Amino acid sequence: MQANTLTPQKLFEPQVRYVIPVFQRPYVWEIEKQWEPLWADVRAVAEELLEGEDLARHPEVPAHFLGAVVLDQQPNPAGYIQVRHVIDGQQRLITLQLLLNAVRQVAEKYGRSRDAALLKALVRNPEHIIEEDDELLKVWPILADRAPFQDAMDDDPANDSGEHRVSQAIVFLRERIRNWALERGEDEASDRLRSLTTTLARHLKLVVIDLEPGDNAQAIFEALNDRGSPLLAADLVKNAVFQAAERQHLDTEQLDRDYWEAVSGDFWRKELRQGRLNRPRIDVFLNYWLTMRRAHLVPSDRIFADFRDHVLAPAEDVRTVLAELKSDAQCYRQLDNLAPYSTPGTFHYRVIEVMDIAATMPLLLWLLRPASSVPPPARDQALKAVESWLVRRMLCRTTLADTNSVVVELIKHLELQEPHDIGNATERFLAEQTGDSRRWPLDVEVIDSLRRIRFYSVMIPRRRGRMILEALEDSYRSPKSEDAHCPRASLTIEHIMPVSWEKHWSAGLANDADSRLRRDHRVQKLGNLTLLTSRLNPALSNSGWSGNEQHQGKREGIAEHSVLMLNKQLLADQVHWTEEDIEERSHALASRIAKQVWTRPV
Length: 602
Description:
By secondary structure, the chain is of the alpha/beta class.
């Protein structure tokens, strides 16, 4: 067999067909595990390319490695289009074709004609040389994927409504590309699409393995996919650091004891979930650390190369690099031990643990690291602003997909500010964001959204809804309360008017389908929810509001057992509980969230 590293331009520009054999599985890639990470990686390279002073010179930027494909060349007569069967990597090839075609479609509207023409040559063979229609496309999927793939590679808007994953992929990719291209307005769209085209054509790399006659395709496939024990990015970093130390005639054993031991051991080798993969904690930390230090998005597969090129290469003394790394590693290690109700501890719980927005970790690390010298009041003001920005966007059901970019731009902005002004600078920066993927929603938007949405149904996973109610409970407490904070992650969400309301809550309800649908909608609203202990919740689950001699009602049960201020406010003068009460409480809680819990500067 022959193995070569090729760019998409080298792979797809020849007149060739990559045919997926019938025994291969259908297309299975999806948004969270593959499409979103792939787009993030490609976008990171394109944005680094944009930073070059002259795009025409194609500045040196690190290539992004897409993985490997294994191809088996098929015999065909001279003069005909070459055919290769795809033995491994078919999901990757299909997605890459969809990505190239999505950029082509956007470029034809907002970019240069030469970029669209280049991309067209990478997805289609010239029509004047084909003998059959199925020779037009460079990649030819199995029958189950063929029709949706042909539709996706066409330009008919009517094809966008398909439910096949291929159909969903092209719509997802095209939307992300269009939003990114127009992020700075139509005047800059052409340059952005130019950098993206260059990235796709020349700055992505695949290892292409061409089998020769006699090669065992299955054996090679198994070897490529077999389990191994690959080197960690941290292992490569350590090797490079200590090689540099030797060149500087430093005592490497002493450096190991004084610095590297701080990032060694089982704690750092433990695997954590990062995106779609499990990664050792040390590699996760290095990813955050490099993103923070460079104020630049660093793909997870570029950790070592980024460290080598942008941290180690400019360093005159590796001891300064190791000292900084050790200090920040110790800071990172303490994040799980932050005082739980401090502002950093609250941010870590709500944003990173509950909302699962790890993209904010580089910012949290930057604000907490000693080298930044940010005073605690300014740090806390900054964290509260970022938390408000994220929670408000979540409550307004707007995308959080651009958080990575906003965070690195914010770090870059804050590095230019005086430490004491970091809090004000953060508020100003977020308030100045105007794009749909970046705006800091206004009070009226938050209140309107919370009054309309089926809160319990849309706050998925459930811990997000619980966190909102916990924060509301905190807002009712004060330093004079027996405990100033609501218990976290232990209470359960309870519907005051239950989801199964028919038995005890039907009195006075019109017996028609519309009334029942309206009630089914309202019982999921914020105003109908509260927090109870896991033991009290099932005891009251489907009870009526008021009880009788045989059964305790919800009102009596909550009054007897709950000590939450949220429930004290609920029960005050509440003789009945109706749909009108749900609406009034939804508005009251929504207003409290916008004006007292997660505020926004005017």
